[in-house]
């Protein structure tokens, strides 16, 4: 059988004040085009369908439109789980009715792990849908794991999941699964626990013919070519700017045949870091601005103050997300912090506010802003606060 494997859609995500939903709509249309052309036997969504537990109306509408086309128009079943960003109860609402239509969605971790059986041309595949759960939930729902750490609990759960060895067995899961080689993580992945205790091991997954993972935003394997992260739908941080986003095309045969191919997904905007002197960046001819429409982090190499750098650069590069100044060569970090603190004590409130505002926004505050801050400080001094 053949499945397409996606994960970490994060529908409705905001990045540095920019909504990603228009980019997500373009990418989901690309997914639909591939589904329409290739007609796989199922679409796997390995968690983090939404970016937050209470998604916006627009995000819900986009996912609803996408999933309706997959199931109702194309007749392709969807096998999905909730991730650590999803609100499991909301995600899994009416899943009994939805399953009859072809949407098999498990929002919250359930024990025993729910299984969906698909059959085609004499081939049988059992797909286990294991939604994300933290250790407290595992202990509560699987009492036998009480006192175990996360890897031990997951190993117990998986080893006590009865698989039919006569059929193809697939697990859909969300979390950090470690193998022999280091995993590639990114800034946009939410830490699952303090201290990293919610990592588990690929050795627990040997009984499965394929493991479709979500959570890490870089497409990669973990310990085996059959244990795969699809990566996120698109870039969601500047730590991902070198990532090539894909959908995995997975072929599984009853006699053990296995093949996986990457289907590229091309977003309308990329996350890109550019560096240079302020005047040089402004002077680039429009025809040569290859990153004009991309989401940019601009690192200015100038020293000294600049007049409204963010506003002026946005006239050339409208999608600047971050504006930073290159680190000064002289002085250690601690020296700079001490010097900055000592200088701040001698500054007037308005000047201190202006310095803070420029560091945060990359722009100078208006005279009206500065005047309002001055009035506030005067009122505070009058009250003796």
Describe the structure in your own words:
The protein has 385 residues and is an alpha/beta fold. Helices cover 31% and strands 23% of the residues. The protein has 11 helices and 19 strands. The protein has helices spanning 21-38, 57-73, 88-91, 95-101, 135-141, 150-159, 278-283, 309-314, 333-346, 349-361, 367-383; strands at 2-6, 14-15, 18-19, 42-46, 78-81, 103-106, 115-120, 123-129, 168-174, 176-178, 199-201, 210-214, 220-221, 227-229, 246-252, 258-264, 271-276, 295-300, 320-325. It has a 6-stranded mixed sheet with strand order 6-5-4-1-15-16. A 6-stranded mixed sheet has the order 7-8-9-12-14-13, with no helix packed on it. A hairpin with a 2-residue loop joins strand 7 (115-120) and strand 8. 33% of the residues are buried. The model is unreliable at 328-342 (pLDDT under 50).
